[in-house]
Design goal:
The chain has 390 residues and is an alpha/beta fold. It has 2 domains: 258 residues, Alpha-Beta Barrel (TIM Barrel), CATH 3.20.20.70; 62 residues, Arc Repressor Mutant, subunit A. Helices cover 42% and strands 21% of the residues. The chain is built from 16 helices and 15 strands. The strands form 3 sheets. A 9-stranded mixed sheet has the order 7-8-6-5-4-3-2-1-9, sandwiched between helices. A 3-stranded antiparallel sheet has the order 10-11-12, with no helix packed on it. Strand 10 and strand 11 form a beta hairpin. The chain starts with a strand and ends in a 10-residue tail after the last helix. The relative contact order is 0.11.
């Protein structure tokens, strides 16, 4: 039986760079130059896909995720061409989950219709907050009202499955702000919500402010309270908390992201994209001109490649799996690796159980509620090589 896999495509174009973002993206202000770069880039993506297709016949591709950057900064008809190409090349089944990330400022009912017509059936909308003052601080190009308008456009185009990205722990954000954001998000009735705490990354404008003690961040205790509030509000509204940062109405969990959390294979296409195929993990160079130039000569532009041995695969399967509230199945782990969780990690499991951070019930190892708030403490226990500890 073929192994299930997914496809991730990185679209590294944005209207502007957000203050907190360290994802690989570029801003091209001249419209004619932008369209020329987009054409060359998407052509390179198709060449990269063709390069991998010939030796990936052992996989059954079931998901496609267009991420960024802001994919919807690209004209919808150009994105549609890529979707059609990849669907045909990798023989995605009818009804396969095809997600496109979007900025509320870059979608209309018309552009959404084009995407829907080629099989895109899930939109992930970067709302982040419902206070214009916070959106300004983040450097977002949209307003709170734009989010509501975008959701109306989704409905008009026939999309019934969509995610809202929200952020907490923002500079100047209060508990009242966060509660209002959660309640407004619930009112818009998404099928899925992602709630991420702000991480101040090196190389971003926020990091510069943080290093000079000029970033007014909530404290760790307040951030923990915000996370607890999200769990309370969203679960009471009928959303299932199924992964550390993700909530879904039953049956609307993100199939593509589940591949990551279950440590299953996925193909990464585009500048800076990562993939995991067979026993190899690779990351493309974060260099749009270099990526385009390399694929004009049908050559990969890979910055890093790593062979995955059995120990690494076991560690990563457990660490990723413990992000899921359902945890890791002992039976599935044994079937995949030929050994028990208890044979490989007896001391780690016992230690974390005694500290109240994990539990083993009905054949599954999972984090407790306390463990959810101390995820990094849990995960580092299962990195068995000291040089790989976090």
């Amino acid at each position: 039986m073929k192994e299930t896999a997914g496809i991730y495509v990185h679209i590294p174009f944005c209207l502007r760079k957000c203050e907190y973002c360290d994802f690989h993206s570029i801003v091209v202000n001249d419209r004619s130059e932008f369209l020329a770069v987009v054409d060359s880039y998407l052509c390179a993506v198709q060449r990269e896909a063709q390069y991998y297709a010939s030796w990936m016949e052992e996989y059954r591709f079931e998901t496609l995720f267009l991420g960024g950057g802001t994919p919807t900064a690209v004209p919808a008809e150009k994105l549609a061409e890529v979707v059609v190409y990849l669907r045909e090349l990798f023989q995605l089944p009818v009804g396969a989950e095809i997600t496109c990330e979007a900025n509320p400022k870059t979608i209309t009912a018309e552009s959404l219709n084009e995407l829907r017509d080629v099989g895109v059936n899930r939109i992930s909308l970067g709302a982040q907050a419902f206070q214009d003052s916070l959106l300004d601080v983040l450097g977002r190009t949209h307003s709170a009202a734009d989010v509501s308008t975008s959701v109306q456009a989704l409905h008009a185009a026939g999309f019934t499955d969509f995610n809202l990205d929200l952020m907490f722990g923002l500079p100047g954000q209060t508990m009242a702000d966060w509660q209002a954001t959660l309640e407004r998000a619930v009112d818009l009735a998404p099928t899925h919500l992602s709630c991420y705490s702000l991480i101040v990354e090196e190389g971003t404008p926020f990091y510069d402010l943080f290093s000079r003690d000029l970033l007014d961040l909530p404290g760790e205790d307040t951030e923990a309270d915000m996370y607890a509030l999200a769990r309370d509000v969203l679960q009471r509204a009928g959303y299932r908390h199924y992964e550390v940062s993700n909530f879904a109405l039953p049956g609307n969990e993100c199939a593509h992201n589940l591949l990551y959390w279950k440590n299953q294979p996925y193909l990464g296409l585009g500048s800076s994209a990562s993939g995991r195929v067979g026993t190899m993990r690779y990351t493309n160079a974060a260099d749009v001109p270099g990526y385009i130039a390399a694929w004009q000569h049908n050559q990969p532009n890979i910055a890093h490649v790593e062979a995955l041995d059995k120990d690494k695969e076991m560690d990563e399967t457990l660490i990723c799996g413990l992000r899921l509230l359902d945890g890791v199945s002992e039976a599935e782990f044994r079937e995949r690796f030929g050994c028990s969780l208890w044979e490989v990690y007896p001391d780690q499991i016992k230690n974390l159980e005694e500290r109240g951070l994990v539990q083993y019930r009905a054949g599954r190892l999972s984090v407790t509620t306390q463990g959810l708030f101390l995820g990094n403490v849990v995960y580092r226990e299962f990195l068995r090589s000291s040089e790989r500890r976090i």
